[in-house]
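pasting for the record
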Amino acid sequence: MVNWIAQWAAYQFTLEAMHIPARPAASFTAMIAVNLGGIVRVTPANVGVMQAAMAGALLAFGVPAERGVAAGFALQAIQVLPILAFGVALVGRSGLKRLLATTEADLAKVG
């Protein structure tokens, strides 16, 4: 339950940050539409699907489609980029060093 409330808040704050005047009902509807749209993975990271679902849901609340798509991209960036940065830092710290060491050893055997 806490996760859903936090996600709903993220949608609402993103809409506010994008200067889209939206009632909580609009952000809740967008959240439900995006989550339902994400059930079937059509594209990597659901890029495009998330934005279309968000824009479609927000149309019912008078938000122009282009603003809904922009908010969808902003929200996806907010959700993905911190985790991606953390993963890259983690891999760069340990995994990449091991991978490169293994690759160099394999190349020495071949060469």
